[in-house]
Amino acid sequence: MKLNYKILLLCLLTCASACFPAFAQEQEKEKETFAQPIQEFPFAEPVYLQDQHEIQSTLNYYHDYNSEYIGNNLSFEVEYGIMDWWQVSAEYGHHYQHRPVQKSYNINDLELGTMFSVFNTARQAASFAMSVEIPVKKPALAGEEVDGVNTSFSPMLIYARQLGSKAQLHLNGGTEIEQQEYEWFYNAAAVYGSGHWHPLLELNGTYQDKEAEWYLAPGFVLNGNSNWELVAGARRSLRHNDWGGSVKLLFEFTAGRH
User: Fold this and answer.
1) SS (H, E, C) 204-241
2) Is the CATH number 2.40.160.40 carried by domain 3-254?
3) How far is Cα 147 from Cα 129, in angstroms, rounded to an integer?
4) Average pLDDT along the chain, 258 residues, taken 10 residues at a time
5) How far apart are alpha carbons 226 and 179 in whole angstroms?
6) Among 236, 194, 239, 238, which Cα is nearest to 218's?
7) 22 φ, ψ to 5°?
C-alpha cells in the first residue's frame, strides 16, 4: 500500500467520525447504557468514554523485552469528557530503549486524541478513536532505523458486548501510520466481575512487514471506590521469547455539573 492510499484512508475515517455525534445523540435518549465495571485494560483500548465534564488522569508504565531491545515507557495521560459521547485526551510520554547491539536512546512524545461514541446500549457499544503522536525529543542516531521518531496517526474502531450479567468482551482494531510505513493492530479483551476485583484476559495482535505477532495477556483491575483504579497485566508472545508488563494508576473527578 502506497502512502497516498493510506492518507486517503485516514481522511475518510476522519470525515466519517464527524457523523458519529448524530448516532451518539440518538443513543442519549435511551435510558440504559453499556455498563462500565472498569476504566482501563492493561494493553487494549476499552469502548468507554468519559462522561461530560469528567476528568481521568492516568499514570502509565510499560515494560517490553525482546531480542532487539529492553524498553521502559512512562507516561501521564489526561482525558476529558466534552459531552457524554465525545472526549479528548493528551498524553506525554518518556520512552527508553536499551539495545545490546545498537546504541540505546530516549524519546519524549506528545499524543493527542479524540474519541466518539458510535452507539451505546445496555447490551453493546461501539466507539471510534483517532490519535496523533508527535515526537518532542528525538535521539541523535544518524544512519540507524528507530521507531517513533516521526509523527504518526492512529485511527481505531472499538466494539464491546455484554456477556451475561458480569462479563464483557471488547474488540478493537486499527492502524498506526508513520511516514511510508504502517502497522495494523487488533485486540480482544475480556473482563469479569461486579465487585472491587476484576480478572482480565487479553489477546493482542500486530501485523507489519508481512509478519504477524500475537500476545496472550492476563491481568486484573482493582477499583476501591468510584474515584481511583489500579490496573496491572503481563503478556507473553505466542511465537517468540518476547514479553511485557503494564501497570496503570488512575484517578477520576468531575470538573463541572451535567
Assistant:
1) EEEEECCEEEEEEEEEEEECCCCCEEEEEEEEEECCCC
2) yes
3) 22
4) 49 52 48 90 98 97 89 97 98 87 79 98 98 85 61 97 97 93 96 93 95 96 87 96 96 78
5) 41
6) 236
7) -65, -45
